[in-house]
Structures are given as structure tokens and as C-alpha cells.
Amino acid sequence: MEGKKGTFDLGKTYLETRGFFPHAYWYWIGVGALAGFVFLLNALFGLALDILGPFDKPSATVPEDSEDDSSNVQEVELPRIGELSSLYTYHS
């Protein structure tokens, strides 16, 4: 297929040989269909959430041993920067 000024449109020829629609308006039809499905599926998802409701009743769990919170805290000593550099050096 020849375009303007005798140029060869490889993309349009490829689309025609594969059976796709080579016209430019099919691009906008695809964009419109994509936007339509986005809105449709989001609306259906919201409707399904509204109809079905939550799976279980929401409830917060409170630990029984909440009297002394300081007993759960542990002290951890972090390595110093000089000690870390010896861990990451490569010895052959």
C-alpha cells in the first residue's frame, strides 16, 4: 500500500495481512471500549461489595497481658560500623 508521496506504509500492510483493522478510527474505538469496561467493572465491583457486605464482623483483639508492657521490650545491641566493614570485604 502506498501512502503520501509514494512512501510505503509497512505498518498498515502488516495489519492488513494479519487481518486487523488498519483504519485510525479503530484506535479510538478501542480506547472508548477500554474506558467503558473500566467504569462498568468498577461499578459492578462496588455494587457487589455493597450487596455482599463484609465477610465477618470486624473486631479488635486485645491481648490479655496488657498490664505490664515493659516486660515485652528487649534490648538489642547493634554492630558498629567498623565491625560491619570486615563482614563485607572479599577475601580470596
Which blocks of ≥5 consecutive residues have pLDDT under 50? none
Using only C-alpha atoms, the radius of gyration works out to: 32 Å
Q: Distance between termini? A: 64 Å
- Percentage of residues in DSSP E strands: under 5%
Helix content: 40-55%
Q: Could you tell me the number of beta strands?
A: 0
Order of helices and strands: HHH
- Report the major sheet: none
Average pLDDT figure = 77
- Content-based structural category: mainly alpha
Q: Given the C-alpha coordinates, what overall shape results?
A: flat
- By DSSP (H or I, 4+ residues per run), the number of helices equals 3
InterPro entries: PDR_assoc
Keywords: Membrane, Transmembrane, Transmembrane helix
Protein name: Plant PDR ABC transporter associated domain-containing protein
Domain Plant PDR ABC transporter associated: 6-62
Structure, described:
There is one protein chain. The protein is mainly alpha-helical and about 90 residues long. The chain has a domain of about 35 residues. About 50% of the residues lie in helices and about 0% in strands. It contains three helices and no strands. The mean pLDDT is about 75.
Question: TL;DR of this structure?
Answer:
With 92 residues, the protein is an all-alpha fold. The protein has a domain at 23-55.
Features:
single chain; 92 residues; mainly alpha; 3 helices
